[in-house]
TrEMBL record:
This is Uncharacterized protein. The lineage of its organism: Bacteria, Pseudomonadati, Pseudomonadota, Gammaproteobacteria, Oceanospirillales. It comes from Nitrincola nitratireducens.
């Protein structure tokens, strides 16, 4: 394999450095009960401005209000348009360096993926989601739990129509965007499935699983969005690790990493763990924080 020749590739290298001029990794907070690490991928001003437009507000995104959660906030139409523009830029001015040909191929693959009819159809209807896990348990030797799924949309009524085409039971609820919580008839659910309730606002659809208190679903629907431009947020609490112990005991033959002892140790050490990705004036920030007991 020939050695990398920086001289022949210098123009392409300069192009990448101009677009991504820096990478910073450091501790933003370090104490006896909490530490936070941040990685900032610095970009040029044009890409930094684009990144801010990708983020979309999702009710409750950024709140550590349950056992665990994971959520995305992405303005898909804007993101798709930007990616198509970047792909065209590379197509019109491809990288010439042999060692960087993979970048050209990557953007060809991205361009092909962006033409997926399902993606193009669903992109205008959904701008984010949050899956919140409220409880996990074993019932009759089967895993079960409760939680809430929130889907954000600039047109929640259109989102409802799309969701109903995949899950016809949703249409049976007759939801309107007044926030009223409605329960799906148990007759329409598979045996053993927890109760399902849903509510609709002008910009979100919230579906609760095993949530018997309507106000909990209403609060999730009306939960404020994080003021920062979050693209991704997730968290795990000590109670989540504890809740996994019964599952680990059933699955112990699959490996020690799933052992109840390990999960119990995590539960005793980590009160809350958070991960997020957001845009800022410098580019893209990836944050990781751990609150210790």
């Amino acid at each position: 394999m020939p050695a990398f020749d920086a001289g022949e590739c210098q123009q392409d290298i300069d192009r990448l450095i101009k677009r991504f001029p820096g990478l910073t990794i450091g501790m933003k907070e370090y104490g006896p009960d909490r530490f936070q690490m941040n990685t900032i991928l610095e970009t040029d001003s044009a890409l930094a401005a684009d990144l801010k437009t990708f983020a979309a507000k999702v009710p409750g995104l950024g709140q550590a209000d349950s056992l665990a959660s994971i959520g995305l906030g992405l303005n898909l139409p804007v993101l798709i348009q930007a990616l198509q523009r970047y792909a065209l830029e590379v197509q019109q001015a491809p990288f010439n360096c042999d060692d960087l040909q993979g970048i050209n191929g990557m953007w060809v693959d991205i361009s092909d993926a962006l033409n997926n009819p399902m993606l193009l159809m669903s992109a205008p209807a959904i701008t984010g989601l949050k899956l919140r896990i409220d409880s996990l348990f074993v019932q009759n030797y089967e895993p079960s739990g409760t939680g809430i799924l929130t889907l954000a949309s600039p047109n929640a009524q259109g989102l409802l129509s799309m969701a109903s085409s995949f899950v016809p039971q949703i249409a049976a609820l007759g939801l309107s965007n007044n926030g009223e919580v409605k329960n799906l008839s148990p007759d329409m659910l598979p045996p053993g499935m927890p109760s399902v309730s849903a509510a609709l606002s002008s910009d979100a659809l919230t579906v609760g699983f095993g949530i018997d208190t309507p106000s909990v679903i209403s609060d999730a629907l009306k939960a404020p969005s994080n003021s920062e431009p979050l693209m991704l947020y997730g968290h795990l609490t000590d109670h989540f690790y504890s809740a996994l112990i019964p599952f680990a005991e059933q699955m112990s033959p699959f490996g020690d990493e799933l052992s109840g002892n390990e999960l119990s140790r995590y539960s005793s050490l980590y009160k809350n763990t958070e991960l997020w990705i957001k845009a800022d004036d410098y580019g893209l920030e990836i944050g990781f924080a751990v609150e210790l007991k």
